[in-house]
């Protein structure tokens, strides 16, 4: 097996409308397929994505909708490379304007992109053990190129913004409540915003007041030019934040369009009642 | 082996290509019938043990790479070959700090190889006795690599030893006590301080917390995480414990029966393992 992980650059091939990136897009997913082969359960294969195409431009917020099991989180995880892609391309336009295929990029280069240019906020804060709240957020800023002092100040500002009480800042994140963890997570994800931010149900555990504060924070990402690809549990959040909605079903794109059109279309299988 | 020095230095600090270690008959005849698909590292033809074969990886400054696998998978053999504790049967091991990565350090004579351990590549072992002289004081153990590269001023050596011990949180009033009188966790901290004495660009960690009590292990892990973040050292972490690998590394190799069966980002390996053996390991660790 090949374990060559030398730094190389995967550049965009001759432009191809079917497989190449869209001009100007930060993220272009083309023909993405993903199966899981479960060797520990008699080698069974479970299909998850069956050829997904989508684009996200700078400052654009694309929300994924669809019923549970439609492949929304799987798609986010493929883009972040927590899941390996079966086939297809995940084109990402880097800061330097180069298109790289995350599906085929060497691990070390994906690791670099994750620190600097691609952020992921999951439903659960999977923080490292014994790390303080302030350090989690500040470390994310340092990873995106801030100096330590600036990152510390920005982390403090971000934590205030999402309503995390100052007396919790030096505590280990593991002792926080679910909602507090989620807010720490979003503060870390949005400090010095990355070029592409993946949000997987980032407000699912929040009470209405905190939810509103976090949605405000996400709404302001548009001004920084961050491309956002999200999964939200509730259609209100989608309506408020999304510039475009992509409906997934059975691992395929069923529909794409403006939130006001998609969310009012009774024929589409959306998770929550309208 | 010497080739012209490239114009740009390599981006990696350590690069290993085609590394192999066979105990017994080193000929190609020993390879057949070994590896994961045969379920053994022992050659049916020659009886040789193919402890590691065809292992490739590189590590950049400031990066940590994990090697995971169960006992006998070959992960510690790889580490000992890179450290120079054993001579690899095959392959290339290059350090950016040695002739800009153009020399295969496997070809160096034993004394040149030992010198690399002073300031180019350090190792921390599971058993502190492997990296320390237990009958010598903590300060004396750390002074060893310093005097070996030419430090002579007693005051400066004490100062550097004190600085390192305080970085690894060993109380300075224990500096002159023999390491044998230290607890397991403290011995491990002294071993780490000694390994960092000359700021090596490459640090090898072999099961650095295995055998320590959970709370002591947690303290040593936190220390290592902080050091890896601050120093910019390139680290290779060998462990059978996913908790250690997950906390310290971003990329990982999985070994079984002497071969690498999978490599990937650490979270990908945990969330979407591909090889049957990786899936078994993750299922066992995650329950």
From TrEMBL, chain B:
<dbReference type="InterPro" id="IPR012700">
    <property type="entry name" value="PhnK"/>
</dbReference>
<dbReference type="InterPro" id="IPR017871">
    <property type="entry name" value="ABC_transporter-like_CS"/>
</dbReference>
<keyword id="KW-0067">ATP-binding</keyword>
<feature type="domain" description="ABC transporter">
    <location>
        <begin position="37"/>
        <end position="282"/>
    </location>
</feature>
<dbReference type="InterPro" id="IPR003593">
    <property type="entry name" value="AAA+_ATPase"/>
</dbReference>
<dbReference type="GO" id="GO:0005524">
    <property type="term" value="F:ATP binding"/>
</dbReference>
<dbReference type="Pfam" id="PF00005">
    <property type="entry name" value="ABC_tran"/>
</dbReference>
<keyword id="KW-0547">Nucleotide-binding</keyword>
<dbReference type="InterPro" id="IPR027417">
    <property type="entry name" value="P-loop_NTPase"/>
</dbReference>
<dbReference type="GO" id="GO:0016887">
    <property type="term" value="F:ATP hydrolysis activity"/>
</dbReference>
<protein>
    <submittedName>
        <fullName>ABC transporter ATP-binding protein</fullName>
    </submittedName>
</protein>
<dbReference type="GO" id="GO:0019700">
    <property type="term" value="P:organic phosphonate catabolic process"/>
</dbReference>
<dbReference type="InterPro" id="IPR003439">
    <property type="entry name" value="ABC_transporter-like_ATP-bd"/>
</dbReference>
